[in-house]
Amino acid sequence: MDKLRKVLDFCIHHQTILGYSTVSLLTAASEHIFSSVVFKCPCNSENMLYGSVFLIVPAFILFLLGYMVNARTWRLLTGSCPPEKRRSCRLCGTCARYCLVLAPVTARALVAPLTWIAVALLGASFYECAASGNGLIKSFVCKDKGQECHNLLAKIPCNVKLLEKIPDELPSLQAQSQLIGWLLIASIMTVALISTCVSRCFSPVSYLQLKFWKIYLEKEQDLFQIKAKEHATKLAETNINCFFEATDPAPFQTPSNEDWRKISFLYTFDSEKQYYSMIHKYINTNRGENVKFGEEGQKRSVLGFVDETSANESGF
Questions:
Q1: Which of 42, 65, 124, 293 is deepest in the core (most CB within 10 A)?
Q2: What is the tens place of the pLDDT at every residue in 131-154?
Q3: DSSP 8-state secondary structure symbol assigned to residue 267
Q4: Is the dihedral of CA 106, 110, 113, 117 positive or negative?
Q5: Calpha distance 55→164 (Å, rounded)
């Protein structure tokens, strides 16, 4: 039992890394299946289009799915343009306003598509097919060689032995693909490390306070889920009983729309007044009456977990 608890604690404390690793492994496995089972290079003039579609389109679909499954996306958009504010709500203005908030969401959404592209480049099947139909490569390799050279180049993905009939100047398409793949992986890791270091350097709180903050949010959301279920159950029981018994309901205190709206704002950091969540801020400002709730304050990327924890625990 103790070992199981240690495993669960490890998974909870490293859920972000484990999540990224799982997504990357699933993406790599899917790419392998596609390249070995589904992908069949036509080996004709359609090589460029066919190979590019298999390399880019699945990555784009994974990018969109990354946005869809990220809870912070829906926390950001839900209620941002209510009916009473529809006239003053402009799509361009909303996008510009939330650009900074969407930056970390975009970074997370890029994990799967970049993994797809990197693994596909290391496998070389997609790139080899697309490059063999690329006009620039054809003009470089088959300069003054005639149409037969163009035809041979397009058939290389289907018959590797045809490489012997191509001039030695041709760089291996497979080697090109793998080289680009490793460069892409190295670039991703470098950017990820630099962005993490910069984010932590500009953190408004210390390392230990950051750990405490995350523990607080976990406990707050656990209690919120328990209390919300109890409250919803009591309200549902009251309404059902009144329906079947044909009686009037007793007064039942529940948060108003304005209360829900205030605790649903995205978190902004205020160096003068320390709040660990929007509920914390709501409670300590006389139910939000002593301060204006909205987009005031500073958005810090290192504190993005405040909104993500809340949204993930809520199931949206």
A1: 124
A2: 888 878 777 777 666 677 777 777
A3: P
A4: positive
A5: 27
| Residue 267 CB neighbour total at 10 angstroms | 22
Supply the mean pLDDT for the chain: 79
Q: What percent of the chain has pLDDT over 70?
A: 72
Q: How far is CA 89 from the centre of its chain?
A: 26
First-residue to last-residue Cα distance in the chain = 32
DSSP annotation string for 222-283? HHHHHHHHHHHHHHHHHHHHHHHHT-PPPP-----HHHHHHHTSPP-B-SSS--SSHHHHHH
Q: What is the pTM of this model?
A: 0.76
Q: CA 243, CA 142: separation in Å to the nearest integer? A: 82
d(CA 156, CA 147): 15
Quick one: pLDDT at residue 234?
93
3-class SS of residue 170: coil
Sign for the pseudo-dihedral over CA of 306, 310, 315, 316: negative
Identify the residue whose tokens are 């977990």. Answer: 305
Identify the burial level of 47 via C-beta atoms within 10 angstroms of its C-beta, where 0-12 means exposed, 13-18 middle and 19 or more buried.
buried
Distances (CA, A) of 57 to 39, 60, 115, 143: 13, 5, 13, 31
pLDDT tops 90 at residue 63: yes
Contact, 48 vs 133, CB < 8 A?
yes
DSSP 3-state of 313: helix
Angle between helices 47-69 and 111-123 (to 10 degrees): 150
Q: How many helices (H) and strands (E) does the chain have?
A: 15, 0
pLDDT of residue 179 exceeding 70, the answer is yes
